[in-house]
Amino acid sequence: MPPSPSQPASQSDQILAAAKQWRQQIPGDLHEHVVEAIYGQAARIAERSVSSPSQAARPTFDRSLDHILTSKLWGFPIMILLFAVMFWITITGANIPSAWLSWLLIDQGHSWLRGIFQSVGSPEWLTGFVVDGMYLATAWVVSVMLPPMAIFFPLFTLLEDFGYLPRVAFNLDRLFKVSGGHGKQAMTTMMGFGCNAAGVVATRIIDSPRERLLAIITNNFALCNGRWPTQFLIATVFLGSLVPAVLAGLVAAAAVTSVAMLGVLLTFLVSWGLSRTLLKGEVSTFSLELPPYRPPRFWQTLYTSLIDRTLFVLWRAVVFALPAGAVIWLVANVYVGGESLAEHFIRVADPLGLFIGLNGVILLAYVIAIPANEIVIPTVLMLTVMTTGLQDVGAGTGVMFELQSGDAVGQLLTAGGWTTLTAVNLMLFSLLHNPCSTTIYTIYRETGSAKWTMVSTLLPLALGFVVCALTAWGWRLLSVAPG
Amino acid sequence: MSSAHPPSPTENVATAPVVDACASCSVYRAANLKKLGVAMEDWDFVVALAGNPNTGKSTVFNALTGLRQHTGNWPGKTVARAEGGYAYGDHRFKLVDLPGTYSLLSTSLDEQIARDFILFGQPDVTVIVADATRLERNLNLVLQILEITDRAVVCLNLMDEARRHGITVDDRQLARDLGVPVVPASARFGRGLPELLQAINEVATGQVVCRPQRLETVPAAIRPALTAVVGELEAAYPNLPNPRWVALRLLSGDESMVDALRGGQLGTLHSLATTESNKE
């Protein structure tokens, strides 16, 4: 039988005291002694059971590929090019299924559902709340999000399975060291490209609390799942349309690449700034393993990234879109003093919004969309209809209306006072604003500190305002376009 | 087994046609594997899955539970614990996928999660997934885990890659040296998993008793300190299965170990063999 679970306190104190006393008598570093002994024994055992050919265990193919992919000269250009190609494939590939989905779910589905509600004698407010609010928000999220995700995620997963991501981390490592962060921050940033909440959890691989905080605070600068579709859509509609159709895809892809790279750049700058002010300290070393390249198992990757990642993210978006749709409908249809709640907010926020090259509608959309970045674009579109009074386009106040293609989105937003500057700044603001509520909660859980949660939330937001204001200022100065 | 079978059971057992000869082979019971996903109430045994980063732990986890934990070819992918279940033969197993770590000695959160689960979670079996192409480095972790627990199975994964690189591993010699079962596998292709299930089952039910290799030579510099603290621990907790590891952690000031000692949690740790005999 084991002894009673709780030993007399004196006994454990005695053991602790002995341990403490003995610790001081150990010459050198205890850790090193132990590690040395373990390594020695591991080597002896391995020697007895492993036989390998005299040449290096790693085939030359891996090594020569590493030589190129992690080279000082080619590492970064190849990295940027690879991502740009991925974005280009996503943008050009997503157009057609997007238009098809929007025809099915919005043009057909919405009026069909509305018809059903009316035929069973549902009161207009209920039809509005459920069909024009909840259903349309969800339908919009699906048609905007699903196609780019279904293309982008499998591509990204294939690259990941092949073993490219550790090479990216290797390339970035030197920059992280210079900026005062931990090299493993590159890994958590990569994770953030999928989902910032997951990226924040992934910072557990970093030993030092200082460097871990840096990684948590800067994780939001990695564009997440919910923000990629916004980037793809706005880049296609506004920037792609500035050039001949042949080049449209390329220009849009280049724009998205630039925003993603800006995020990486800001990760370094903010880490650099913080590690010289709030979070001073030493950079710790670590070893990074470059795993062998493995041929991705194509069909399995396709299947799992579609089922697990795409549908998982889509499900999350839908779950958040349902209540958000209801909220949107309510703020547009609850009147206080002759004006709807949304109009009140937009009137107050418009001067600030326009000053930083955005508008009040976008700011309101970002407030409503705090639970999930995925619903920003649908919210913006709906609010724009309401404020521009384009009733003939939509089905009524506060209704996310039917649009068949990206062109229609462009026409509508232009009618809502959008310029190229608004589009560029929306892309920037999508990169630089507070994390979604899930991520904020995760940051709080991981850091256990309200202070650092506030910093992680407000710092990107403040940066967003500054960067957008500067862009707007420079844009108007050069008067590239009437702003 | 009938002569109709190819000589390497590793490759084909799982897909072999159902004949009587097969059904009587213990390895064949893998066909009885029932993937339970997250439905894992009332398990009989808890199995921990440990190993270096990027050795295919999540792949093994997915193959056994039928879950689809995201897998990726890069170290540091799994940082939190994932749990799933499977039934094998008459027993239900709860499988816990631990974060991949190179060691259990540092202060990072992922290593602490793995370390504390293996020690305080008292899994019935700890499966250590090791990369056959980098065995020496992987053994560092294996040896550390064997200091903590005496019920372990080493899954020698990525055998296909090792073969491609011309590396051969004598798994029998390795099993003799480590004192625990060693199962060669290629989890990505489902090879070796029936044997792994079998080995886990045998260790869990006590059919196979492990005599794990513990560090043979304690470095002279820490020997007096270690001996003294181990002595104190053994006097206070005669049933502690791993006094040397606990002493080592106390000497390095591991806070969760200090807390466990103060809170009396250490007294509840005892070798699993004792637990079993107490039950009966």
Task: Please explain how this structure is put together.
The complex is a heterodimer of chains A (483) and B (280). Chain A is built from 19 helices and 3 strands. Chain A has 483 residues and is an all-alpha fold. A two-stranded antiparallel ribbon of chain A has the order 2-3. The longest helix of chain A has 45 residues, at 75-119. Residues 1-7 and 391-404 of chain A have low confidence and may be disordered. By secondary structure, chain B is α/β, with parallel strands linked by helices. Chain B has 3 domains: 1-32, no CATH class; 33-204, 3-Layer(aba) Sandwich (Rossmann fold); 220-279, no CATH class. Chain B has helices spanning 9-12, 20-24, 57-65, 109-120, 135-148, 159-164, 171-178, 193-204, 223-236, 243-251, 255-262, 272-279, and strands spanning 34-37, 45-51, 82-88, 91-97, 125-131, 152-157, 168-169, 182-184. A 7-stranded mixed sheet of chain B has the order 1-3-4-2-5-6-8, sandwiched between helices. In chain B, α9 (223-236) packs across α10 (243-251). Chains A and B meet through α1, α2, β1, α5 and α6 of A and α4, α5, β7, α7 and α9 of B.
Q: Catalogue the unreliable spans of chain B.
A: 1-19, 273-280
Adjacency order of strands in the biggest sheet of chain B: 1-3-4-2-5-6-8
Which structural class fits the helix and strand makeup of chain B? alpha/beta
What integer is the average pLDDT of chain B?
Answer: 79
Largest sheet entry of chain B: 7 strands, mixed
> How would the global form of chain B be characterised?
globular
Helix-strand pattern of chain A, N to C?
HHEHHHHHHHHHHEEHHHHHHH
CATH-defined architecture of the largest domain in chain B: 3-Layer(aba) Sandwich
Strand portion of chain A, in percent? under 5%
Structural domain tally of chain B? 3
How many β-strand runs of chain A? 3
The chain-level mean pLDDT of chain A equals 83
Task: Note poorly predicted spans of chain A.
Answer: 1-7, 391-404
* Total helical segments of chain A: 19
Radius of gyration of chain A: 27 Å
In sequence order, what are the helices and strands of chain B, one letter per element? HHEEHEEHEHEHEHEHHHHH
Helical content band of chain B: 25-40%
Q: State the separation between the terminal residues of chain B, measured CA to CA.
A: 36 Å
Gross morphology of chain A:
globular
